[in-house]
Amino acid sequence: MAINKIKPLAFKHLKPTDKEQNINDGGGLYVRVRPIADGGGIFFRFRFRFDGKQQWLSLKASDLVEARKDRDTYTQMLKDGIDPNLEAKLQKERVRQHQLDEQEALTKLEARVTVRGLFVRWRDTELTNRKDVKEVSRMFEKDVLPVLGILFVEDVRKGHITQVIDALLTRGVKRMAKMILALMRQMFRFAVDRGIIEFDPTASIRKAKIGGKDVERDRVLSELEIRALARQLPNANLLKSTECAVWIALSTLCRIGELSKAKFSDVDFHLKTWTIPVANSKNGKVHTIYLSDFALAQFKLLKQLAKNEMWIFPNRGHSSHVCDKSITVQITGRQTKTILSNRSKDSQALVLTGGKWTPHDLRRTGATIMGNLKIPPDVIEKCLNHTEENKMKRIYQRQELKAEQAEAWRVLGERLNLLVNMDTSNVVLMQQR
């Protein structure tokens, strides 16, 4: 059989007629021209014998040159003992599988989540009921997302986590480093639970190894220091409201974050109470503080300063309460050796003989004074609004000891009034127990 019977020029002039045309090009290649009634069109077919049977194979070639290459390829397959029809089916399956693999890869690529995307999902899903969601967001925006935010979650490794932690340790904020590690661990475990990743990149990092073992803080101001604080506060160039906050924290045992969020509507000046609502309370329970005359005087002064404000400690725009950290930052800034450009003269204004102190130390100090005044420990725990750790006591001992709490705050207030507002030259200072 002659090879290449159809001349290229002749092939270009092939046109459909009323009848189907099958033109042999040699070597088993046929050009099929469908009739006009069937829509016309030119196709290529390859005829061959395999295992003694004659078979046809439709080619996908679009022109004669390409069809002849296919014919030569299949002819070689026959010489190698390969069935062209079977090979064509296998090739079709390979193409289909390749397309499926590409689609799967594309789907996985589109489904990849960045650490920032994971954080948003975790925040909106898991943190909605947490009171510190704004603070968590602030910490991530400042210290975590600038480093990890653009990474895909499955690409995060232990080294990326330690990069964040080491930066915090370099700044000297060891406690913050431990806290952020714990939060990142919660977020990545959320990702594991949701099937976003298989392994938590923080799993092998031990919290105890970050900056060494935690040392429980036990700073308590002595009564001598409280007297010194009363002398130093007016000259520390603090906001008057911050001075009041110091005495309220000391006389009510409140947490500074609870005080920062307080509204005047929470204070009943007639009944002499301050109610910390569920939204502001750390343990999620309403807490009523019976104000001593000492504490009530501070709230009255704040009322005079604020005039018609809703918030006791408003932010600069008066749209909400002040930042939880504001009072702490002001107090810490008066106990540092760092020379600040506009506050260098005040940087040592609140330094006390016992060392650095924080607003939370005032809470511990007030509780200690109560103990020195013979207030029972269970009453002090109620005043602190601590949750009972013993499950049995928590379930069965539900007495609120309101009268006892009121008395505890009263005697604390009287003691503080004696130390702060009167001539204390004849006051016998109590020894801390």
TrEMBL record:
Record has DNA-binding as a keyword: yes
Transmembrane as UniProt keyword: no
SUPFAM superfamilies: DNA breaking-rejoining enzymes (SSF56349)
Top-level division of the source organism's lineage: Bacteria
Keywords: DNA integration, DNA recombination, DNA-binding
GO molecular function, one term: DNA binding
InterPro entries to which the protein is assigned, alphabetical: DNA_brk_join_enz, Integrase-like_cat_sf, Integrase_catalytic, Integrase_DNA-bd_sf, Integrase_DNA_bind_dom, Integrase_recombinase_N, Phage_int_M, Phage_Integrase
An example Gene Ontology biological process: DNA integration
Domain spans labelled Tyr recombinase: 216-410
Family classification: Belongs to the 'phage' integrase family.
Protein name: Integrase
Source species: Candidatus Methylobacter favarea
